[in-house]
Amino acid sequence: MAVFNAMPYLVDAVESILYQSYQDFEFIIVDDGSTDDSLAYLQSVDDARIKIIPQSNRGTAAAGNVGLAHCTRQYLARMDADDWSDPSRLERLADALDANPDVSMVGSSFAYFGDRTAGRPVPMPQDHDSIYRALLRGDHGMVHGASMMRTDCMRAVGGYWEHRFFEDWDLFLRMAEVGKLMNVPDSLYLYRAHDTSLSSRRLEEMRLHYDYAIDQAKRRREGIPTCDLAEFQSQRKNRPVTKAIGERLDNIALANYRRAMGEIYGHRPLRGRMRLLSASLWNPRRTLNRIGRRFQSRID
């Protein structure tokens, strides 16, 4: 678990791991330079399984690589510091890896939650081909915080890249190259939705890293030499104007969708539904697809 200023949600996240049905684990927590009470809380928890590693603020990916370096177990599970794991999560995912030796990484379906309530489970693709295709076209195929992977496979692909964003997407795609990806059908993870906004500059930077991860995976698959981020960014400037406009519209839709989830499951559900409508106007196809996944479980 990487932690940066995660109070007050950190308490529930930590306890959801400590009270798992599977108890034989080491809990590596990297405090990434928190300036709130996160580190003090962690140091107050009396549990021999917890190993706290403080460091200066270097970002989630760097913290993840520090955790990987200290991992001594066969399997490594991720957990975000403001989310919640079902009590059976570690046991269920470890059983899936035990039963499927060709699988390098396994995850589960999930549900959004906020300060007021939680949503219905969001189904995820379950087989490798469906997950990989989703990732390559830019759709969610796995949830990082809900994942468990073989430690040797993660080390084989070099751990996380340490660019600013989407280290999880890049990791999923590279883990697919050393084994199969898999999701168990049940929802074992609650993903906290926040109602904070994202700046247009941050959205553009996130989009750049997301596109870069997908581009590099396609290059590796096709046997084309990869390139560094600066070269990709230079090449990307030559993309058609219509594509650039479409990406910007999708960025706006995504920002509205993410904030809407936080409002719907928080204390402003009406505002959240109005924002969801706004997201669908900016990018109808992508937003309706996101909404459709949320409500699919009501039909199944």
TrEMBL record:
Residues forming the Glycosyltransferase 2-like domain are 1-153
- List where the protein spans the membrane: none
Q: Which GO terms describe its molecular function?
A: glycosyltransferase activity
What InterPro entries does its record include? Glyco_trans_2-like, Glycosyltransf_2, Nucleotide-diphossugar_trans
Which Gene3D superfamilies does this chain map to?
Answer: Spore Coat Polysaccharide Biosynthesis Protein SpsA, Chain A
- Any one Pfam family match given in the protein's UniProt record, by short name: Glycos_transf_2
Lineage top rank: taxon:
Bacteria
Which EC class, in a word? transferase
What name appears for this protein in its UniProt entry? Putative glycosyltransferase EpsE
Organism of origin is Crateriforma conspicua
- Lineage, opening ranks: Bacteria, Pseudomonadati, Planctomycetota, Planctomycetia, Planctomycetales
Gene behind the chain: epsE_1
